[in-house]
UniProtKB/TrEMBL annotation:
Its EC number is 2.4.1.13. It comes from Salix viminalis (Common osier). InterPro entries: Sucrose_synth_GT-B1, Sucrose_synthase_pln/cyn, SUS_EPBD, SUS_N. This is sucrose synthase. Belongs to the glycosyltransferase 1 family. Plant sucrose synthase subfamily. GO terms for biological process: sucrose metabolic process.
């Protein structure tokens, strides 16, 4: 990007200086994409000069720019040339010099808007890159939003190159249990070669049965070959599952691996976190911090329960799933059910709202408080919620889903404590609602406590095993937006 700006200086020096001077004349501050383009349109020059600049390399920089930081005589521009890729350049308008900046250098320059220049060599800086940074990381924009497919490609590639990589899969299938019942494989199968021969033998036997034959009709024979429940409820589904595993053992490929792993029974108990607001099924809409997220999560758990019931049935199991929406118990509940510890979700058989109160050294907090004021209570809340969850499940959940900044942070604390998979749902994050709040957070901190919230977002998002968004644009933006 530095070269593109330098090329423009060489070819259209006067026009570019005029444009950059317009930015500098506005004084220090942040310019957004529309401001950058507007100044180009408002330049005082002949149409031919404006067209030359608009069609030049710097125009490409402006079209991809997400913001510019102006600290006279400098203009620094953050550019996203394509999704997932950022570049930073700074121009000294007085000297007409151009330099490329690292992320840290750009952020330090941006902070000078508020804090002024700093020569303190002892400033503590923390790099909150994803905590699982040793995992495979995509370098292509096309992989954004396709994390599962990307990881399956990596895993299947390792399996194809190194057959020893199949051993962890075998070990998992051999020890996999739920409520003390072995699933998938038993101790008769002790090696990958033994698994492959057992699969071929079972395939020969099951292929002779009518496709609709129930698993219970051949369970005893199946078990004698080294297989336990979890492969399917009918001969057809068991056979399909075995074909998938045989294909993986012979020549792993991403789609086959994804399909197989997606059908292995692993998720029976799920926790969904949404601590703030009045979370209930009646008389809550319109109350503070309580709105569409209630409907969203209630719809989510109904669909999730139906999907879990269907999958468990098709896996040939008779377990019942359990889903807990963990939220806050509010003793002074204003005529709602938010003072009830446990409440069944209407339209479901196995889903409940579990309410746990906020507590401090002074006891239980009885009244509602704003979502901006919950931060001092969340660590203790996570400890109390962990005990309640274990009591309800008679064990740990298989999966924890966080919602919103506070729910994502509690999900991180619980997932770390329990050693289970964590998913965050990236919606309603406050930084996107308040323009430039990432740099001017001190102005809002007394009221909104952004210092706590933004830190919680960074910790929770980096700690998550995966993150769900509604659209690709939430991750990578569009051609016009961040």
């Amino acid at each position: 990007m530095r070269d593109r700006v330098q090329d423009t200086l060489s070819a259209h020096r006067n026009e570019l200086v005029s444009l950059l001077s317009r930015y500098v004349d506005q004084g220090k501050g942040i310019l957004h994409p529309n401001n950058l383009i507007d100044e180009l349109d408002n330049m005082v020059c002949d149409d031919e000069a404006r067209i030359r600049l608009r069609d030049g390399p710097f125009s490409e920089v402006l079209k991809a720019a997400q913001e510019a930081i102006v600290l006279p005589p400098f203009v620094a521009v953050a550019v996203r040339p394509r999704p997932g890729v950022w570049e930073y350049v700074r121009v000294d308008v007085s000297q007409l010099s151009v330099e490329e900046l690292t992320v840290s250098e750009y952020l330090r320059f941006k902070e000078e808007l508020v804090d002024g220049p700093s020569n303190d060599p002892y400033v503590l800086e923390l790099d909150f890159e994803p905590f699982n940074a040793n995992c495979p990381r995509s370098t292509r924009s096309s992989s954004i939003g396709n994390g599962v497919q990307f990881l399956n490609r990596q895993l299947s590639s390792n399996m194809f190159r190194n057959k020893d990589s199949l051993e962890p899969l075998l070990d998992f299938l051999r020890v996999h249990k739920y409520k003390g019942q072995a699933l998938m494989l038993n101790d008769r199968i002790k090696s990958v070669s033994r698994l492959q021969s057992a699969l071929l033998k079972a395939e020969e036997h099951i292929s002779k049965l009518p496709p609709e034959t129930l698993y219970t009709e051949f369970e005893y024979t199946f078990q004698g070959m080294g297989f336990e429940r979890g492969w399917g409820d009918t001969a057809a589904r068991v056979l399909e599952m075995m074909h998938l595993l045989l294909d993986i053992l012979q020549a792993p490929d991403p789609s086959t691996l994804e399909t197989f792993l997606g059908r292995v029974p692993m998720v029976f108990n799920v926790v969904i976190l949404s601590p703030h607001g009045y979370f209930g099924q009646a008389n809550v809409l319109g109350l503070p911090d309580t709105g569409g997220q209630i409907v969203y999560i209630l719809d989510q758990v109904r669909a999730l329960e139906n999907e879990m019931l269907l999958r468990i049935q098709q896996q040939g199991l008779d377990f019942k799933p359990k889903i807990l929406i963990v939220t806050r118990l509010i003793p002074d509940s204003k005529g709602t059910s938010c003072n009830q510890r446990l409440e069944r979700v209407s339209g479901t058989e196995h889903t409940n709202i579990l309410r746990v109160p906020f507590r401090s050294e002074h006891g239980i907090l009885r009244k509602w408080i704003s979502r901006f004021d919950v931060w001092p209570y969340l660590e203790k809340y996570a400890e109390d919620a962990a005990s309640e969850i274990v009591a309800e499940f008679q064990g740990f959940p298989d999966f924890i889903i966080g919602n919103y900044s506070d729910g994502n942070l509690v999900a991180s604390l619980l997932a770390y404590k329990m050693g289970v998979t964590q998913c965050n749902i990236a919606h309603a994050l406050e930084k996107t609602k308040y323009p430039d709040s990432d740099i001017y957070w001190k102005k809002f901190d007394e009221k909104y406590h952004f210092s706590c919230q933004f830190t919680a977002d960074v910790l929770a998002m980096n700690n998550a095993d995966f993150i769900i968004t509604s659209t690709y644009q939430e991750i990578a933006g569009t051609d016009a937006d961040v």
